[in-house]
Write a structure and sequence with these properties.
The chain is of the alpha+beta class and 275 residues long. Helix content is 27%, strand content 20%.
């Protein structure tokens, strides 16, 4: 019992305010003086790479809609195929060399390099919380909360209360026939294979990083309404009383910091936490 409590405490203590206050001097803080220098690639390039896939997915799945409506596994297979045709590679969840689940990159092409440096390889999915919004119960025993540079948090847990909240917010924000966000990342059959960033593990001794996190704000008009169904993020409670399509949206991408070999696991430099 004590061992189980110790494991839970190690996971939760970094979100327990009294512990943070008494252990401030022990925390390692990633210092970023200017958010502009924290970009691996220009935001316009990141947006272009993202739009290339979302528009290709929309075209392919619209054409195949009568076939895939009742076959979710077929839909996922089609999405992987579209990603391969668009990017020249695809990513998928698989057992990690570090234990548990991870994300691997591969290609159907006969070459050793699957991903070129500077390429978007994944998105970190989840519900977006402002620093002042409640996340206590969602954070208990939840290792999937990503804290952005400005304090905004993304809950990428695909189970329990986090899953229920994301589905509820997605239904709330639906615009007519168009879903406002992708909910398939909560399942095993993704409509956008990029939406697996929460399963990218951190580098460790003997396993160096090959990707890094890059935050970006998507402004109204950057992504058409019909393509928002492939983005895996939405607001827990919108920061302004505006229609959902008139609100900016925070996304967190993972970008390759070097060429990634075929079959290589994606590993980040470290999990970005700024208190």
């Amino acid at each position: 019992m004590l061992r189980k409590f110790g494991t839970l405490w190690k996971s939760y203590k970094y979100r327990f305010v009294p512990w943070l206050a008494f252990n401030f001097h022990k925390r390692s803080v990633r210092s970023v003086k200017d958010r502009g220098v924290d970009k691996i690639i220009p935001e316009c390039v990141l947006l272009d790479q993202l739009r290339a896939l979302t528009s290709a997915l929309l075209q392919a799945q619209t054409w195949a809609l009568p076939t895939i409506q009742c076959h979710h596994q077929l839909s996922y297979h089609l999405a992987l195929q579209v990603m391969e045709e668009t990017y020249g590679f695809h990513v998928y969840r698989a057992p990690s060399s570090l234990g548990g689940l991870g994300v691997l990159a591969t290609t159907d092409r006969s070459c050793h390099v699957a991903v070129q440096q500077g390429q978007l390889v994944a998105l970190y999915p989840g519900t977006i919380y402002l620093p002042v919004q409640p996340i206590f119960f969602q954070s208990i025993n939840n290792p999937f909360i990503f804290r952005c540079i400005d304090g905004i948090m993304v809950d990428g847990n695909d189970k329990r209360i986090s899953k229920a909240l994301f589905k509820s917010c997605s239904s709330r924000d639906r615009v007519g026939p168009f879903p406002i966000a992708d909910t398939s990342w909560l399942t095993d059959c993704l409509v956008n294979p990029l939406n697996v960033g929460q399963y990218v593990n951190n580098q460790s001794v003997g396993h160096s990083s090959n990707v890094a996190y890059q935050e970006m704000t998507i402004h109204p008009g950057d992504v058409p309404l019909e393509e928002r169904q492939y983005l895996p993020n939405l607001w827990y409670s919108p920061p302004e009383a505006l229609p959902v399509m008139d609100l900016p949206l925070r996304i967190v991408g993972l970008v390759a910091t070097r060429n990634i070999q075929k079959g290589e696991e994606l590993l980040s430099d470290y999990f970005t936490i700024i208190y």
